[in-house]
């Protein structure tokens, strides 16, 4: 099978069809459209600002077994006798969705399999990782506003006992930020996020696989050093 990264031609098609009850037409740019192992897979860029796909990936309501996942993480605090203390979030946006880079451009991404969809949110007691297996609460030990574009959270939780997240807002207008995560004081990684309230400031790539799980689109690794110079 030809890999998605090797698809050289991107087709813009003027016809209209329906996905999840939504009309997809002339403002749709196809990256990949084929039958894979006998099953349909379509990957396209949706430039429609009213696209329902934005709602799908920026939903922070508890679904299905989310309550069980959240309770499992908060039970850890009780076991460790960790008290959750209330404090108003200092950061201007409290709900964040993963942002991807494809061919040098930034996009929101609606995956084929939501197991790979990641979000984060902050409330007055916890910093929540919304993973494919459900939301996981982390106790906010300390939050700090370093400057108008930089915010720091010290966290502890069932999976990472010593964790720090520094959020660098690099584009206020579009709500884009670089997240720096440091665990155990040494392990460091970076990832891009966009404020859920601003998600329509970028186009969205949709990976539509209606009948079975298929390959996710391969994205570029952002140059975080360069992005942070725009802070």
Can you walk me through this structure?
Helices cover 11% and strands 44% of the residues. 28% of the residues are buried. A hairpin with a 2-residue loop joins strand 2 (17-19) and strand 3 (22-24). With 231 residues, the protein is mainly β.
Identify the notable features of this structure and list them briefly:
mainly beta; eight-stranded antiparallel barrel; disordered N terminus; 15 strands; 11% helix; 231 residues
Distance from first to last alpha carbon: 41 Å
Helix content: 10-25%
- Tally of separate helices: 3
Question: How do the strands of the widest beta sheet line up side by side?
Answer: 6-8-9-10-11-12-13-14
In terms of DSSP E residues, the strand content is 35-45%
Mean pLDDT figure: 89
List the helices and strands in order: EEEEEHHEEEEEEEEEEH
Q: If you compute it from the alpha carbons, what radius of gyration comes out, rounded to the nearest whole angstrom?
A: 19 Å
Low-confidence segments: 1-17
Largest sheet: 8 strands, antiparallel, barrel
Report the structural category: mainly beta
Give the overall shape, derived from the CA principal axes: globular
């Amino acid at each position: 099978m030809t890999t998605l990264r090797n698809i050289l031609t991107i087709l813009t098609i003027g016809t209209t069809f329906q996905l999840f009850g939504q009309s997809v037409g002339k403002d749709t740019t196809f990256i990949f459209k084929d039958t894979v192992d006998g099953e349909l897979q379509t990957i396209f860029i949706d430039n429609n600002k009213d696209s329902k796909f934005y709602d799908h990936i920026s939903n922070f309501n508890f679904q299905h077994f989310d309550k069980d996942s959240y309770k499992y993480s908060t039970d850890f605090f009780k076991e460790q006798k960790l008290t959750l203390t209330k404090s108003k979030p200092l950061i201007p946006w409290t709900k964040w969705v993963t942002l991807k880079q494809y061919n040098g451009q930034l996009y929101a991404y609606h995956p084929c399999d939501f197991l790979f969809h990641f979000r984060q949110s902050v409330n007055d007691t916890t910093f929540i990782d919304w993973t494919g297996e459900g939301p996981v609460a982390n106790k906010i030990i300390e939050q700090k506003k370093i400057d108008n574009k930089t915010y720091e959270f010290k966290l502890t939780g069932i999976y990472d006992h010593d964790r720090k997240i520094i959020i660098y807002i690099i584009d206020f207008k579009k709500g884009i930020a670089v997240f720096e995560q440091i665990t155990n004081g040494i392990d460091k990684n970076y990832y891009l996020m966009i404020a859920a309230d601003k998600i329509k400031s970028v186009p969205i790539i949709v990976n539509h696989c209606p009948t079975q799980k298929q390959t996710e689109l391969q994205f570029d690794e952002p140059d975080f050093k360069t992005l942070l110079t725009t802070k």
